[in-house]
Amino acid sequence: MDISSLKALNAARHARRAVILLTDLTVGQERVIAPGDPVEEGLAAAVDEAFRSGKSRVVEMDGRKFFVNVHLPPPRLIVIGAVHVSQALAPMAKIVGYDMEIIDPRTAFATEERFPDIPLHAEWPEDVLKTRPLDAFTALAALTHDPKIDDYPLKEALLADCFYVGALGSRRTHAARVERLKASGLSEEQIGRIHAPIGLDIGAASPAEIAVAVLGEIISALRKRNLKTEAEAGKA
């Protein structure tokens, strides 16, 4: 790997952006490409699939072989609310490879005893997200039912183009939430990205079942995310 490619990969890693190291195995030439960058027509589908799946592979085109080596940031899951669903979600998220963190200013809930081995911020989301900004490879799940806690991170997640934004609550609760977010300046299109009620419709009832539904919906959103939107956000 040449030094310019290494610098580009390190910069992307630091910024939590997806890139591919595309190597022409026939002549040994390589370049780093980001979502939305122009590539040869015969490679476009393979590059898009690599960004979506996170799987590297060798591709043949016109008698030449290319190694599509994809580098994706590890997906993060930011949960707003140290609640029972969060307790069930934590070990599941770890199993599927998500770096999960919990934010909840209610110190009676946000305790190490309830959430061992999970990064826990017993602070207001406004304070935490100043130093730990959201990005396109982050999922945010708001679970407190309290607009004073949930609304700010929901807005920030939409503005940061998080690949998944979900909120717990009934349709009536969400209707009121929509009006508050509109008043804060968000468009109907932006607000429409919120998954509410949160989670896949599997009839979940217990906290553990709700956690399964939420995680399934997050995984689906990650694998089906709109890479054009991500590319536009990265160039903004």
Automatic annotation (TrEMBL):
Residues 77-218 form the XdhC Rossmann domain. Pfam families: XdhC_C. InterPro entries: MoCofactor_Util/Proc (IPR052698), XdhC_Rossmann_dom (IPR027051). PANTHER family: ALDEHYDE OXIDOREDUCTASE MOLYBDENUM COFACTOR ASSEMBLY PROTEIN, MOLYBDENUM COFACTOR INSERTION CHAPERONE PAOD. This is XdhC/CoxF family protein. It comes from Paramesorhizobium deserti.
